[in-house]
TrEMBL record:
InterPro entries the record matches: Glyco_trans_4-like_N, Glycosyltransferase_grp1
Name of the molecule in the record: Glycosyltransferase family 4 protein
SUPFAM superfamilies referenced in this protein's UniProt entry, alphabetically: UDP-Glycosyltransferase/glycogen phosphorylase
Domain Glycosyltransferase subfamily 4-like N-terminal: 16-210
Superkingdom of origin: Bacteria
Pfam family, one: Glyco_trans_1_4
Length: 403
């Protein structure tokens, strides 16, 4: 089988789960050609991402002239498909001129991908995220190219389901993947009831071999927490400095390592200064996978104060590393974090609740933290082994290509 993978931006530090999924499919003997609209090579720090960059075809690098020629070529060679795709692009663009113009650009990108899919002999396209990558995949199908499927992660897709035409994309797909039961429930809200059976759950996964037996819990009297992720409004990191200050005022000795970067870094740094916790916080910037495993080993627990999520990879990685998790009671988090067993769940947006989670973790013995970490590790390895999850995805693709 020859499979095309389609993303808007790839590779990038925040989507290493896609890279793991592709590699797991390739271990099953499936040939995967990577398409991305764009990528920022200068932002890549992980050697594995740099290798992926060299293996990825960047559609926009073909240039506007090439995309336009491919679009005109489709209009001549496949007039019925072109009219069908043009109508789909117009409808997905909604009523705004900007939306329709954007989808006409997606149509040109789709014409290029369709031409390349024909040259490469691709049997199926799989897109990640229900945004423009799924729109391009749907338009490729309308142009007469291979069928498609796509994985919806959230929360972005669920913020704008109508603008993204999620229901239409589900209907046109061979199948649609949600990464959690919660994600599937949200897709069912926007899909026709008749399409519900085509919405399947395939988890993102980890490579267990990269997570050998967890390191011992750090010693000393300081509770060491780590937060990993993009500094964006949905991740809720702005609550952490105040929560740290509250916990410290109640006698908790705590240190937080923030791993990542993003548009809210200035606000986070300002909040750290405003709450006087500069000595209790370390900002590392983005780290490669080895660096992430190192900071997890040096921490007692992961803390994730998110306002919106899908099913966070950092929770899986922390649990695989034998570390309990303090997370908000949203989205797919409760599918992994079991209060009192693998971590703590707190109300999203509630700084007092977040501070209490920190205080509770500080009051938990190292031995009990270790037992919680082991329980979390067993749970995530059972539910999120990437090779098992890729096998589920491969079966769905194989079934689709036989229809």
């Amino acid at each position: 089988m020859r499979l095309g993978y389609l993303l808007n931006t790839y590779p990038q530090p925040s989507v290493t789960f896609v890279r793991r999924e592709i590699h797991a499919l390739e271990r099953r003997g499936i040939s995967v050609h990577r398409f991305a609209m764009r990528s920022d090579r200068d932002a890549l720090v992980d050697p594995a991402d740099l290798q992926e960059y060299d293996r990825t075809e960047l559609v926009l690098q073909a240039g506007a002239g090439r995309l336009l020629r491919d679009l005109l070529g489709m209009m001549v060679a496949r007039p019925a498909g072109f009219v069908r795709a043009l109508a789909s692009a117009w409808q997905m663009g909604g009523r705004s001129a900007q939306g329709r113009l954007r989808h006409l650009i997606y149509l040109a990108e789709a014409a290029h991908v369709a031409r390349r899919a024909e040259v490469l002999g691709l049997d199926h396209l799989h897109a990640h995220f229900g945004t423009n990558s799924a729109a391009v995949a749907a338009l490729v199908r309308d142009l007469g190219g291979p069928g498609y499927s796509f994985t919806v992660h959230g929360p972005e897709e669920f913020d704008s389901p109508l603008a993204l035409s999620l229901g239409r994309k589900v209907t046109g797909s061979e199948f649609t993947v949600a990464i959690s039961a919660h994600g599937r429930s949200q897709l069912c809200r926007w899909a026709d009831y008749a399409d519900w059976p085509r919405i399947r759950v395939v988890h993102c996964g980890i490579e267990p071999a990269r997570f050998p037996q967890p390191a011992a819990m750090p010693g000393g009297g300081t509770l060491r927490l780590v937060n990993i992720g993009r500094f964006a409004e949905q991740k809720g990191q702005l609550l952490l400095p105040e929560a740290l200050a509250m916990a410290r005022a109640r006698g908790v000795d705590v240190h937080l390592t923030l791993v990542g970067d993003g548009p809210m870094r200035p606000q986070i740094e300002a909040a750290i200064a405003a709450h006087g916790v500069g000595d209790e916080v370390t900002l590392t910037g983005w780290l490669d996978e080895a660096g992430v495993r190192r900071v997890l080993a040096e921490s007692h627990a992961l803390i994730l104060p998110s306002f919106a999520e899908g099913l966070p990879m950092v929770v899986m990685e922390a649990m695989a590393a034998g570390r309990p998790v303090i997370a908000t009671y949203i989205a797919g988090n409760p599918e992994l974090v079991i209060p009192g067993e693998t971590g703590w769940l707190v109300a999203a947006g509630d700084t007092e609740a977040l501070a209490k989670g920190i205080i509770d973790a500080a009051g938990t013995s190292g031995e009990h933290l270790h037992r919680m970490g082991q329980a979390g590790r067993a749970r995530v390895l059972q539910r999120h082994d990437i090779d098992r999850e890729a096998e589920k995805l491969a079966r769905l693709i194989e079934e689709a290509t036989r229809r």
